[in-house]
């Protein structure tokens, strides 16, 4: 299995394509590029290229995004992309003189993936982005049936910044993924779009009692509930918390100091355990035991 990795800055690009055994040195086998790792840095006179077996060299009178894109295009067009990992990282533009080239690079990247005869197959998708448009450059052009895990990180280095993913959650790739992990961001999207994940770590900022009830009901009514493991829902604020606790139903006696509820699900062998902490709600499965009292399925 292979990994394709792209890091794009306003004046620097890092491009990697390698087998997961860990080699980074490029070599060819039967005409197929096996491993590739290159750095492209913009200088006053042109672009400095180094990596792999090549000696550092200067390409004069060219732009870093043009050189990096050309090599990426060769990789994509010469390889049948069945990837274990597809990782793309985009960062805030710091240099105004690079802004236009950076925007053009992203548009060309989108077209490059969109015009492939076959969609890229990738199990694990990792996005480090400044907004959802950078996710949508790639995500819609990945084979939905191949996607298992999605990782999203806000690369703006602003702690718990809000990231709107209203369009991302509508894609077939999102709906087919089984696990989700977030880092350094607060997502803005209705919680009903998260109930299909078997395992997820979500930070959503403010939530309403309706959001929590809808999520609980959506998980309990999953047709494939036997695959569900857990969802950790982190939040800063919940509206009308006392009313939420009342609507969740009768609490279960528990040895811990958390608030616990147990619910029936579509699978009679397993229940949904909901635990409420100060700034987190956890949904997870629990096997049904004799004489266990469950809140009926709605």
UniProtKB/TrEMBL annotation:
Protein name (Swiss-Prot/TrEMBL): DUF38 domain-containing protein
InterPro entries with a match to the protein in the record: DUF38/FTH_CAE_spp (IPR002900), FB224 (IPR040161)
Domain of life of the native organism: Eukaryota
GO biological process: one example: innate immune response
Pfam families listed in its UniProt record: FTH
Domain DUF38: 107-235
């Amino acid at each position: 299995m292979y990994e394709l990795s792209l890091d794009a800055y306003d004046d620097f690009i890092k491009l990697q394509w390698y087998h997961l055994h860990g080699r980074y040195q490029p070599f060819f086998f039967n005409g197929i590029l096996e491993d590739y790792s290159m750095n492209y840095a913009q200088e006053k006179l042109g672009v400095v290229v180094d990596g792999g077996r090549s000696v550092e060299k200067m390409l004069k009178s060219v732009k870093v995004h043009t050189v990096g894109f050309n090599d990426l295009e060769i990789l994509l067009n010469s390889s049948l992309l069945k990837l274990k990992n597809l990782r793309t990282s985009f960062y805030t533009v710091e240099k105004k003189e690079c802004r236009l080239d950076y925007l053009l690079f992203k548009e060309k990247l989108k077209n490059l993936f969109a015009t492939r005869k076959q969609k890229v197959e990738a199990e694990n998708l990792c996005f480090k982005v400044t907004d959802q448009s950078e996710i949508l450059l790639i995500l819609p052009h990945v084979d939905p049936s191949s996607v298992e895990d999605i990782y999203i990180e806000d690369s703006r280095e602003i702690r718990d910044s809000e990231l709107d993913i209203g369009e991302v959650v509508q894609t077939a790739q999102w709906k087919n993924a089984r696990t989700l992990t977030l880092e350094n961001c607060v997502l803005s999207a209705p919680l009903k779009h998260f109930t299909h994940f078997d395992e997820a770590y979500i930070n959503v900022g403010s939530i309403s009692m309706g959001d929590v009830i809808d999520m609980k009901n959506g998980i309990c009514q999953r047709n494939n509930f036997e695959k569900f493991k857990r969802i950790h829902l982190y939040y800063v604020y919940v509206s009308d918390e006392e009313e939420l606790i009342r609507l969740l139903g009768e609490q279960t006696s528990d040895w811990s100091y958390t608030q616990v509820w147990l619910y029936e699900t579509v699978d009679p062998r397993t229940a949904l355990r909901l635990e409420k902490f100060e700034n987190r709600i956890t949904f997870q499965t629990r096997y049904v035991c004799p004489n266990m009292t469950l809140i009926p399925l709605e």
